[in-house]
Amino acid sequence: MKYEAVIGLEVHAQMLTDTKIFCGCSTKFGSEPNTQTCPVCIGMPGVLPVLNNKALEFAIKTGLATNCKISTYSRFARKNYFYPDLPKGYQISQYELPICEHGFIEIIVDGEVKKIGITRIHMEEDAGKNIHEDGGNYSFVDLNRAGVPLMEIVSEPDIRTPKEAVEYMKKLRAILRYLGVCDGNMEQGSLRCDANISVRPLGQKEYGTRAEVKNINSFKFVEKALEYEIKRQIKVVEEGGKVIQETRLWDSNKGITESMRGKEEAHDYRYFPEPDLVPITVEQKWIDEIKASLPELPDIKRERFASEFGLPEYDADLLTSEKSIADWFEAAVKAGGQPKAVSNWMMGDLMRLLNEENKTIEKCPLKPSQLADMLRLMDKGTISGKIAKTVFENMYKTGKDAEAIVKEKGLVQVSDEGAIEKAVDEVIAKNPKEVERYKGGEEKLLGFFVGQVMKAMKGKANPQMLNEILKKKLSQ
Amino acid sequence: MDYYRLGISEARKILDKKEVSARELLDSIYQRIESVEDKVKAYVTLPKEKAYEMADMSQKKISSGQSASLSGIPIAIKDNMCTKGIRTTCSSKILANFIPPYESTVTSRLSEQGYILIGKTNLDEFAMGSSTENSGFFTTKNPWDLERIPGGSSGGSAAAVAADECIAALGSDTGGSIRQPASLCGVVGLKPTYGRVSRYGLVAFASSLDQIGPITKDVKDSAILMNIISGKDPLDSTSAPLTVPDFTKVLGQEIKGLKIGIPKEYFIEGMDKEVEASVMDAIKKLESLGAIPVEISLPHTGYAVATYYVLATSEASSNLARYDGVKYGFRAEGKDLLEMYMNTRAQGFGSEVKRRIILGTYTLSSGYYDAYYKKAQQVRTLIKRDFEKAFKTVDAIVTPTSPTAAFKAGEKAGDPLQMYLSDIFTISVNLAGVPGISIPCGFTSNNLPIGLQIIGKHFDEETILKVSYAYEQSTDWHKRKPNL
After folding, report:
1. Which long-range contacts (CB under 8 A, 24 or more apart) does A288-295 make?
2. Considering only CB atoms, which residues of chain B are within 8 Å of chain A?
């Protein structure tokens, strides 16, 4: 029998506000434990939360960018449970009336556009961190993270394959980064993903029993954990068993999911409206203002790149995956670079060099205008495509302009007909056998001659001229 | 002269006239405390050294003619309001050694006006109770009869005011915790409109009901304190962004033509006869001053106690979750985390607090939420509407504050339901969020004080202060003192 998976994702995104959601403490990552705390985020007696308006603005931005309906009336609720990293014994979250509802984002899988529904986006506070040291029968608690604003973005169970899930996560991450509301760093935990998964025989309407998989902390693991869990569930069903409703933990070392707690042990969070905060009322005017201030989002930018610059889908998609990459591209084009050429250089050599150093484009030592300048030298015939590769790498490593490098290293292309003819004559004279074979019909030997001449001319021969001269001489 | 007997306005006069220094006034209060505190047991903490420092600071202001409204005035604070550097216990073992590194907004505002923190007063643990018998430390005694309780939960504050162990006090009121002890101790206690006074630094019992207010020797002093503690606080989102009137301005204004609602549901069979008679006399007195009594109905009154005990305990079960032994306060050892949690809370909380946590946890649980918490919220709305409707025809509502005068210690301690019923007349006011005041209106044959409750519209403390003052000025009840 064939099965299909039904997947819904719950994504937690840490917001990039300067201060925490209910107090004025800094949200900076990586400080000494418990140095970014105050009576409010430590949950001391008698203190009260006050909503950080920036967090509300970020949530609204995200809702608008994911086609959600923004609630003009929403409220916070308390989610009650005991844990040492949760100082109040409850998390302030949203329950019945979230800030955003009923949205969607579009993903492209195998060339097909698919809509994934967004059930809701709500705001909540992050918990602190328990630090366990081996050997000791005690733990440390660091509350620097307690109160850092989070958005929980809940998708509809519209996802059918691990690949779709990855595409959904990538698109969501791109949107969050475009908006500047989250840095999208899964490894550092500023973007976290839990998945609800069930399987059913293909064609069946009812959902199967779902399991929730937690602790998926990289894009790679999204795919792996889902693949594993789907296989596991199908196996359970095929062996005549029943999938049980439970929470499972992804173990990336073992590459498996393991049961964490069953339905019976599920927490009763005893949600109720947070009485310390008044309901949030948002004026339509403010929503409209935020909407007007949204940046161009990935989907629209991709379409524009395709139509405005005549780029293939693939290029447009890749160049718009990050706003910073798109910006770099546009800057290079604006500086005079031919769009497809810029795209090729960026997706090829530039990305390779950045990846080698584990750098993002924000840290790119090369300026977009430098690429445009180099492309100009190619157009003018000053350097060949082959030499350009050397020049580009040199520019990247030294930060010098293409022209300077070309001069310094004497890389100017030789377009002097006489010089090329001379070199060609020498190569023909040295290789009579090959000339015979070529003349006998082995035309692929042309490449051999080009190589020999280039070698003799240290790669500086104008390739087009070289080709023409070679062909002419060899057919004489 | 017995300076300790003074109220705020009288003390202000003689301090400014330099008839007495802040230190001398403080000496007088401490002497009084020394002579009666053994009997009354109003205070949990007496930070004497700090009080004298504050007195000296205030004296400088007074001497230079720059006194603020409370310069040199010793005021007692219920021990559920955080005072920086001075332990704040909520009369609970779990916070017995808790010293807040921050100040509540109300005490900050009192400090700006130069008050002296005379001491932190006893309460029912976490303000849960009506007699102070639920204090984790000791029971405060009613200064009018030491065998009786002072009411609660602000029993320490009310007793301290009645016994002249301070000039005035602050209490907090979730279901009657200012008004009921004020009534039982023969003093004035005002619960402001919800949102009038910041709750920042008030250790939460039930956040949607808690409100801080004054407990004073007369109505004017309550108005003076209201002027200081009221107003929007950026640290409390539920505090109202309204301008605060000068509450003393209305004192002395006529109450002629004012319509006073008498809710029939508050005068019921089985009510203490002496209490009923005193309240009826008070209504006649108001009528003689020109007020017009009107019979009204608050039809959902009968549901108030049940509604309150669902909502208040639900919120409390969550508010008290933070006392887990992890960060501050009392911690009991345990072999693992769960056992540490359980031992800490089992040993740290008293039985009434535990009872309410269990009740509130139950009413919020999945499967019960709709039947209890949600239903109670709906009834709360109906109760609020009762008042809104009533206030379309009347300017204030008059009721007894408590169905009985002070009862004996131990009398109701074993029966929580009986104890809960002592707040039957005050609870609706918290559920509706409206302001209410209790003022002395007579004495029983046993010489125990009886209180009159006057309830006002949302943010209309002025009317109830005006009516209270008019009544007070035409009676002598507030001048009587217990014989200690």
Report:
1. A290/A57, A290/A60, A290/A61, A290/A64, A291/A64, A294/A61, A294/A64, A294/A65, A294/A179, A295/A178, A295/A179, A295/A323
2. 80-82, 88, 90, 95, 98, 100-102, 104, 199-204, 206-208, 234-238, 314-315, 317-318, 320-324, 326-328, 337, 341, 361, 364-366, 369, 373
My answer on whether A388 and A427 are in the same domain is: no
A240 touches B at CB < 8 Å: no
Work out the mean pLDDT of chain A and round it to a whole number.
91
Chain A interface mutation, best of B199, B324, B357, highest count of A Cβ atoms under 10 Å: B324
Share of chain A above pLDDT 70, in %: 100
Say how many CB pairs under 8 Å bridge A and B.
103
Per DSSP, the residues of A32-94 read STTSS--HHHHT-TT------HHHHHHHHHHHHHTTPEEPSEE--EEEE---TT-TTSEEEE-
Please give the average per-residue pLDDT across A410-433, as a whole number.
81
At A361-375, the pLDDT tens digits run 888 888 998 888 888
Interface contact A272, partner B, CB < 8 A:
yes
A238 and A332 share one domain: no
Least confident of A391-400, B38-47, B106-115: A391-400
Quick check: B313 pLDDT over 80? yes
What does the pLDDT read at residue A455?
A: 83
% of chain B residues with pLDDT over 70: 100
Identify the pLDDT of residue B420.
Answer: 81
Nearest CB to B200: which of A47, A88, A275? A47
Q: Which of A89, A271, A275 sits opposite B321 (nearest CB)?
A: A89
Tell me, rounded to whole angstroms, the distance of Cα A175 from its chain centroid.
9
Q: What percent of chain A has pLDDT over 90?
A: 60
Nearest-angstrom CA–CA distance, B81 and B77: 7
Q: What is the DSSP letter of B99?
A: -
Please provide the distance, in angstroms rounded to a whole number, between the alpha carbons at the two ends of chain A.
69
Summarised one tens digit per residue, pLDDT across range B351-400 is 999 999 999 999 999 999 999 999 999 999 999 999 999 999 999 999 99
Among chain B residues, the shortest Cα distance to A86 is held by: B322
Please say if B39 is a catalytic residue. no
Whether A249 and A125 map to the same domain: the answer is: yes
Rounded to a whole number of angstroms, the CA Rg of chain B reads 21
Claim to verify: residue A19 and residue A113 sit in the same structural domain? yes
Q: Are A147 and A30 in the same domain?
A: yes
What value does the CA radius of gyration of chain A take, rounded to a whole number of Å? 30
CATH of B3-257+469-479, one of 3.20.20.150, 3.90.1300.10, 3.20.20.240, 3.40.50.720: 3.90.1300.10
In the predicted structure, residue A397 carries a pLDDT above the cut 90: no
Interstrand relation of A149-155 and A112-125 (parallel, antiparallel or unpaired): antiparallel
Structural domain boundaries, residue A32: 12-159+173-182+233-289
pLDDT the model gives residue B19: 95
pLDDT at position B1: 66
Predicted confidence band at A382 (pLDDT cuts at 50, 70, 90)?
confident
β-partners of residue B216 are: B188
Which of B237, B321, B328 is the closest to A82 by Cβ? B321
Alpha carbon distance B257, A73 (integer Å): 42
SS3 B161: helix
Segment holding B44, helix H or strand E: strand B43-45
What chain B residue is nearest to A280 in terms of C-alpha separation? B237
